[in-house]
Amino acid sequence: MAGSTSKTRDRILEVCLDLFNRDGVAAVSTHRIATEVDISPGNLYYHFKTKQQMVAWLFRRFESRIAPCLEAAASATAIDDVWLTLHMTFEAIDAYRFVYRDIAYLLNEYPDLEDAAQSLVAANLLAARQMCLGLAEGGVMQASSEDVEMPALQMVFTTTCCVSFTAPTPRV
After folding, report:
1. Measured between alpha carbons, how far is 69 from 86 in angstroms, rounded to an integer?
2. 137 C-beta neighbours (distance < 10 Å), count
3. pLDDT tens readout for residues 117-147
4. DSSP 50
5. In angstroms, what CA-CA distances link 45 with 42, 53, 63, 69, 157?
6. Alpha-carbon distance 72 to 94, whole Å?
7. 18 φ, ψ to 5°?
8. Structure pTM?
9. Interval 47-97: pLDDT, tens
10. Can you spell out the DSSP letters for 27-47?
11. Residues 24, 97: Cα–Cα separation, whole Å
12. What are the pLDDT digits (tens) for 143-168?
């Protein structure tokens, strides 16, 4: 029975991720999620009492997906390493694009996410700083430890804000 519960929970989260990415969190109701998963609203509430719980689960999955990317970025010392880690980072961001695209809405509606969101941005900034320092130490770029702050901030801005310039694509 536990396997069936886990499979249903995973299906719900997969559908939520697809809907949130496509239409935006605000536009997706729990009733719509239940309909898309082809389960009753009662069955949905058995697995997740609130939409906030679904968002929190997906946010944690995003954190887990992006953590290795940030770790790899922090240890990058060559251009090929940077390219690969940025590629992996943007793939993770695209897979969970609702997080950064809808961040203002998420923090307004689900204030419990604020600490996790701040930690995520802080980890991103730390990884970007470490990447720039590694590139400077490796002779790939010329920069002092003070000079890396601006490119690191620009990288964080790019990775966290790029999807907010794309609107959800509602179904017709």
Report:
1. 8
2. 12
3. 999 999 999 999 998 888 888 888 888 878 8
4. S
5. 5, 10, 24, 33, 37
6. 18
7. -60, -50
8. 0.87
9. 999 999 999 999 999 999 999 999 998 888 888 888 898 899 999 999 999
10. G--HHHHHHHHTS-HHHHHHH
11. 9
12. 887 888 898 888 888 888 776 666 55
33 vs 28: CA distance, rounded Å: 7
Contacts of 88 (CB under 8 A, 6+ apart): 68, 69, 72
pLDDT of residue 17: 98
Helix, strand, coil share (%) of the chain residues, nearest 5: 80, 0, 20
CB 102 within 8 A of CB 160: no
Which residue is listed with tokens 């002092």?
144
Nearest to 151 by CA among 141, 161, 166, 160: 141
